[in-house]
Amino acid sequence: MLDQPIARIDRLRVTFQTRDGPVAGVADLSFDINPGETVCVVGESGSGKSVSSLSLMRLVEFGGGEIAGGRLLFDRREGGETDLTQSTQEAMRGIRGNEIGMIFQEPMTALNPVFTVGRQLTEGLRLHRGMSRRQARARALELLRQVRMPEPERRLRQYPHELSGGMRQRVVIAMALACAPRLLIADEPTTALDVTIQAEILALIDRLKRETGTAVMFITHDMAVVAQMADRVVVMHQGRKVEEGPVERLFEAPQHAYTRALLAAVPRLGEMRGKPAPEPMRLLGADDQRIAPIPGSTTPLLRVRNLTTRFAVRGGLFRRTVAQVHAVEDVSFTLNRGRTLSLVGESGCGKSTAGRSILRLVEPQAGQVHLDETDVTALAPAELRRARRDMQMIFQDPFASLNPQMRLFDQVSEPLRNFNIASGSALTDRVAALFDRVHLPRSFLRRYPHELSGGQRQRVAIARALALNPKLIIADEAVSALDVSVQAQVLNLMMELQADLGLSFLFISHDMAVVERVSHDVAVMYLGRIVEIGPRAAVFENPQHPYTKALIKAVPVADPQRRKGEKDLNFKPIPSPIHPVGHVPEPSVYAQAGTDHFVLTTASGY
């Protein structure tokens, strides 16, 4: 029957055993998912969104959870409606990946590091569909092209660590779509993706839904994505459903105070028009949380000149260098004290590599990096270690950047111990104060990373970066894993620290609405080069480069009445950044488009 739901969650209750006794991750949750329908489940980090999806896959037991009550009814291709809570794990193996596909939140932990991308993509096809090796490989190539992966043939031979965060997420999406499942569970599927890829992936999932009748359970904290994708919305708070309804009604007339809070905290592109400096995000329950606009200073802190970073591509019997990846090519900019410069661009454009090259976590081939009067590129190892007190990094993937075997207290206090800044009760007080600043309860100090949600882990990473009171923080997708209300708190915290301490931020992000909110200046990267750089107002309100215009056009709007159609989302494929050994790129030549506003006129390729 077409009108019968594909999945029904009925009074679901999931509990977790903790040192302090059982905790309900989900309590009395009920909703249906119909064929060809997208149900978006939204709520804060830790609200039970992911737990409900893992319960449907019966994976929650492997994470320490227990389905303590309720039913999970699933309409199978053959055999009709089945209560998944009563299914054996052997029966579930025939359902997972075949009839229920899942896109996980953190691509690095969802992929097996010891197998190639091709092996992981073809495994489900050979197991569930009985394809030959050749057929499965052809289908894997087709899937990678569907998710717009550059050089798909080469990617099949690579391992997950050789791909950028966005590329890894595209592999995870391709794996979930491989067997054309009846129900697709998407847990934050576009978190690690830049706006153009996000727009195309959303259009891809939407097209799959229309063509095959696949039902989609879409878990996200991005209300603009909800407005673009949802037919119906379920709002969760502290493990319970607080509101459910059609997407138009929910955005126009939210009934619950918590839903109104979520919508109020959404950054919207264009809100900063006419405002000269960054301003804090709106927070619910805070009538007057005004931070005065932060003008910053005119004194340079970080000067980057002609930075170039390339990676060797090895091949042949003797693993010789046969080509080079031109990850960062001739990048120059200046960041003043107390200001925020945002680097934006697509996955694989060199944003993260540029940030790592500045800290010398990756050694650049050429160029100069001056922090104050110190030439970072010329420092010996011992001097570089001392210089790193003044420059810290918040990484993109909080699970990978935290040690799973150390308590959170030990991880945040480690920088303070390493530089002999505090010990004993002073150290305890300092770490507790850092937890207060990033809005984490002090009871979390004795927890381990796996006991926290993705957003909570990212706040621990931010607390650790703040521990040494640095002058410069490089934030690599620092708020991409956070739901909107926590994102607003963290961004306000970053602005508060900037106002109080004169911090400078190099903010690496793909979220154009957040970039517009926090930035003084913006640099747009494409294929390793900065194609446009200037004051935030100039870049957003008067973009000159075709690539900048495409990025801004791709941003989803938090309004269901303004959904983008597929015809609006035709973007040029990204050329390969790999060139033969000895290739000499053109120098970067810029034209001035306004005061401090420059546009690349050569070598852009867009």
TrEMBL record:
A Pfam family of this chain: oligo_HPY
Mode of membrane association: Peripheral membrane protein
Molecular function via GO: ATP binding; ATP hydrolysis activity
GO cellular component: plasma membrane
Domain of life of the native organism: Bacteria
GO process annotations (BP): peptide transport; transmembrane transport
Keyword Zinc-finger: no
Protein's name in the database: Peptide/nickel transport system ATP-binding protein
Keyword field: ATP-binding, Cell inner membrane, Cell membrane, Membrane, Nucleotide-binding, Translocase, Transport
NCBIfam families in the record: PRK10419.1, PRK11308.1
Compartment(s): Cell inner membrane
Similarity comment: Belongs to the ABC transporter superfamily.
Start and end residues of each ABC transporter domain: 7-263, 302-552
